[in-house]
Amino acid sequence: MPIREVIEVPDPRLKNVASRWEGNAAETKALAIDLFDTMRSFPGCVGLAAPQIGEPWRAVIVDVSGHKKARSCHGLLILFNPEVIRADGAEVAREGCLSVPDFTANITRATQIVVSALTLDGERVIEADAFEARAILHEIDHLDGKLFLDRVSSRQTDVFRRKTYQ
Ligand SMILES: [Zn+2]
Asked: How confident is the model at residue 165 (pLDDT cuts 50, 70, 90)?
C-alpha cells in the first residue's frame, strides 16, 4: 500500500513525539517507499514526515529538486533518525503543510544546517541551506510533534488562509 493517507489537524497523532527508527533493512525500504510514493502523489510537495502518514517513527523525506527558492539541493533525501548538529542564521519565509491544508504562515528558520541521519546508503552528514534547510527543519519538527503553526510569532499577522494546496 504505497500511497498512504496523510493525516490532518486536529488529528492528535500529529502532536506525538516520534520514536527512534529501529527497523530492519526490509522494513526501512518499505517505509521509504511509502513516504516516497505518498509525497510524489502531491505535485509540488517537497517533504513529508512519517507521523503524517500515521507512522510513529523518526523518518522524513525531502526533495527540493527544481524548486526556484532552493540553493543547496541534495535531490531525494530519505532520512531516518535525523539529528540537527548545527543550525545557523535566521530567515522568515512562508510555509505550508499537507497536514494543515487551510493555512500558510511566515516562519523563522535557520538558513544553514548540518544534519546527520541514517539513509538507505548508510549514515550521512548533510549540509543544507536556504529552502532545503527549511524543508528539512519543517519535517524534523513533525518528529517532535510540532507543526509550523506552533512556531508562528503572531497569529494575527503571520498566518494566512488558503483555498487549495499549492
Ligand atoms: Zn508539514
From this structure: low
In a domain, 4, yes or no: no
Q: Which letter does DSSP use for residue 5 in this model?
A: P
Tally the domains of the chain.
1
Which H or E run includes 131?
A: helix 130-143
> Would you say residue 7 lies in a domain?
no
55 is catalytic: no
- Whole-model pTM? 0.96
For residue 155, is it within any domain? Answer: yes
The C-alpha cell that represents 30 in the structure block: 518499505
**Ligand 1 midpoint to CA 56 (Å):** 15
In a domain, 59, yes or no: yes
Hunting for cell 531525494 — which residue is that? 76
Ligand 1 mean position, distance from CA 142 (Å): 7
